[in-house]
Design a protein that fits this description.
The complex is a heterodimer of chains A (246) and B (202). Chain A is of the alpha/beta class and 246 residues long. Helices cover 57% and strands 12% of the residues of chain A. The chains are: A alpha/beta (246), B mainly alpha (202).
Chain lengths: 246, 202
């Protein structure tokens, strides 16, 4: 219990400290091809008069899967701000009712920040189904009928995401897909051009320019990951030397 | 109002989080807040379904493409909701709606999914022809051969695939899950500090 609390406190301190540091000097991030394509797709969607479709998956906020949903919402906030002045505003689909409501709220915040709140329509944030396959079945028509130029699938999705990836491919629209779910990650590895694996989902905010805190968050993740690696290696060595952890 | 929502959300989040570490002091308050959240989530489902109906009705009203499907969906929703209110969710008619409509449709989508995945794997080489793609497909095929039932019983040497390749895939999966857990932790902290405010206060 005290170890968990220590990790949280350490992560919090690192996040605050690095946020202050990143406000003074922005971080240099390595190139992730999928996020480069996303930034290009946002610009193209606005110019071509087509729209962006963002699917936030089925991450229930009352479970551990809620983390990916929150990361998706953070990215949505930034994307909605960037595309709110487009002729065709982005549409957001989700498979969880609470997430659908939060997506509407986030969309509205983005419009407000861009000074275009009157353009906001609550029907652009949609609940498309409450089970995995009904969510996929409800999302596919949106990808087909709404003049979508790029699809961003981010959040907790399962193997049903293959149907969404296939729908994007049929429409010849861009697909940027990432999930915290291992089944969905393997599906995206097979179906998307530049798959995003593992924690790359949580880098979304930093790569769409959501601010210093997102860059700091990414750096904190890197530091904690190295600490975990050192702890695993140290534990293995100690075990080899005969130390017991019981 | 925005400041109030942010303060309320941050305070609730902190109490729920600290409630796990200091159960003697904060457990009752944590459970009280979680109960509230469960009630709100229940209401959110109703709001979400209403949103779904509004979106479909908008499609019908503006005569969008495939509006007939939207009409069918709204009609089915009203009928099912009405029958559920009158007879209750355990009634035979409600079970029939599940057994005769929902389950077969989802099973059909599952079958389509299997075909879609095979098709995607075949096209993977066209999309990305590199060493990792070759490795990915070889491991996937070997795993399928090792776990699938055959008329002749288990394939000789299947345990080698399951043990050897399984060792790497289990290790890789754990690595990915640790990364995801760290990302989730940091995302949660950003919300807790009010840096990200998905509740409209940003």
């Amino acid at each position: 219990m005290s170890v968990a609390l220590s990790i949280i406190v350490l992560a919090a301190l690192l996040l605050i400290g690095l946020t202050v540091l990143r406000r003074r000097s922005p971080a240099v991030l390595r190139t992730i091809e999928a996020y480069d394509r996303l930034n290009r797709a946002v610009g193209l969607a606005v110019e071509s008069g087509r729209r962006l479709h963002i699917s936030l998956g089925r991450g229930n906020l009352f479970t551990a899967r809620g983390g990916s949903a929150l990361a998706g919402l953070a990215m949505l906030r930034r994307l909605s701000e960037q595309t709110s002045l487009s002729d065709r505003p982005p549409i957001v689909t989700s498979g969880d009712a609470s997430l659908a409501i939060l997506s509407q709220d986030t969309l509205q915040s983005g419009y407000r920040a861009a000074g275009a709140e009157e353009q906001y329509r609550f029907t652009t944030g949609r609940l498309t189904g409450l089970t995995p396959f009904s969510f996929a079945a409800g999302t596919m028509p949106a990808m087909h009928d709404e003049n979508v130029s790029a699809n961003v699938l981010i959040g907790d999705l399962g193997s049903e995401s293959a149907l969404l990836a296939e729908a994007a491919d049929r429409e010849d629209s861009e697909l940027i897909a990432t999930s915290d779910n291992l089944s969905a990650q393997s599906v995206f590895y097979a179906t998307s051009r530049d798959p995003l694996i593992g924690e790359e989902l949580f880098a979304a905010g930093a790569y769409v320019g959501a601010g210093a805190s997102h860059e700091a968050s990414l750096q904190t993740q890197d530091i904690l990951r190295w600490l975990v690696i050192l702890a695993i290696l140290g534990g293995a060595v100690l075990k080899l030397l005969g130390f017991s952890f019981q | 109002m925005r400041i109030f929502t942010a303060v309320f959300a941050i305070a609730s989040g902190l109490i729920v989080l600290l409630g796990y570490f200091f159960p003697n002091q904060l457990e009752p308050l944590r459970l009280f807040l979680v109960d509230w959240a469960v009630i709100i989530a229940g209401m959110a489902v109703l709001v979400g379904v209403a949103n779904l109906a509004f979106v479909q009705m908008e499609k019908i009203r503006t005569r969008q493409k495939n509006g007939s499907y939207s009409a069918l969906l709204v009609l089915s929703l009203i009928v099912t909701f009405g029958l559920g209110l009158v007879f209750g969710p355990q009634h035979q008619i409600m079970r029939l709606a599940m057994d005769a409509v929902i389950f077969p449709v989802e099973a059909s989508l599952m079958a389509i999914l299997a075909v879609t995945l095979i098709y995607a794997s075949i096209r993977l080489f066209r999309r990305r022809a590199d060493a990792m793609t070759v490795l990915f497909l070889i491991v996937a095929v070997l795993f399928l051969l090792a776990i699938m039932p055959t008329p002749f019983g288990p394939i000789p040497g299947d345990w080698i695939v399951l043990e050897f390749a399984g060792m790497f895939s289990r290790g890789g999966a754990r690595g990915l899950l640790i990364g995801v857990a760290l990302g989730t932790l940091l995302t949660g902290l950003r919300v807790l500090f009010g840096i990200d405010r998905p509740y409209g206060g940003n």
